[in-house]
Amino acid sequence: MPVVDFGAGRRGRAALPPVHLADLDLPGRREAVAARGLPGFRANQLSQHYFARYVRDVAEMTDLPPALRADPAAALLPPLLTALREQVCDGGATRKTVWRLHDGALVESVLMGYADRVTACVSSQAGCGMACPFCATGQAGLTRNLSVAEIVDQVVHLAAVAASGAVSGAPARLSRVVFMGMGEPLANYARLVQVLRRLTAPAPEGLGLSQRHLTVSTVGLVPAMRKLAQEGLAVTLAVSLHAPDDALRNELVPVNQRWAVAEVLDAAWDFAAQTGRRVSIEYAMIKDVNDQPWRADLLGALLAGRLAHVNLIPLNPTPGSRWDASAPHVEREFVRRLRAAGVSTTVRDTRGREIDGACGQLAAAETTGRERKAAQ
Description:
Blueprint: H1 26-35, H2 41-52, H3 66-70, H4 72-76, E1 82-89, E2 94-100, E3 106-113, E4 118-121, E5 125-127, H5 136-140, E6 142-145, H6 148-163, E7 176-179, H7 189-200, E8 214-218, H8 222-229, E9 236-240, H9 246-252, H10 261-275, E10 279-285, H11 293-303, E11 308-314, H12 328-340, E12 344-347, H13 361-375
Parallel strand pairs: 4-7, 7-8, 8-9, 9-10, 10-11, 11-12
Antiparallel strand pairs: 1-2, 2-3, 3-4, 5-6
């Protein structure tokens, strides 16, 4: 079976995770079980358990012969994620988990329940190399890309939690996935596209989610944005803009020094034209930094008449950061000006503030705690 290079970050070349069922398409799974001396239908059986019933532990697949569970099947379902810490808030409607991967890297995922839907927010990288200074993950730097299965396994776990009815006040079914956890999804492009196809393929090939219910976030990797527009996937593209002018965006989103605001938005409009999908413009409201009325007017002028929606995000400050959230009246004026320009605008529902809700905060706290113990 071929070995895939999942990438390495600042810590050097990372050891690859073991190959998992979710790394393979259905024909690949049949080849894998055949290589272990099993009939092809076992691949369908394992896939049905994993993708339709959200069973991640082969020991729980009691319709398989014990000998099969003990060796060949288990080899295709190695444990990829170990839960180190889970926090619950918002009356049980928000659940955040920090995971340890096989090599000790940490990632996070969040499950959020609403009256009409359950959304999973998942990580695509361990850490992030984009270095946005107001983001906890960006401050940590990049460890490595995640494998296809490491990303999919987060979703399958969260789908199982939703199906158990543990998310208060929400349907018992995961319906949406946003790639807004740790990492820059388009920097892990090849695996991201495989994940999107795995999540939307019907069982037993995949999870059977709607393409329209998947959202891919990016800070603006223009070549990858243009490539994604050609994939035939009707997903939502979310552009983390955070400033309408290059002078400030160069500071807030350093990759802007490579692809400026005009180039990023041009690629976004190309995506909208190719897919017919409205682009989400993500904008973290940072006190006295990017929340001035003139910046609202400039943003409105850039977006007016476009297939776009602005999602304003009240900043969840990271510990020790100099960045803080905008005052409510400033936020309201920003919204007013955007809407006056004819731009659809909403303010993101704030979740998880009391549980280190911003991306990377919980993993950072876990890492700090381990470092303190090691130093004692």
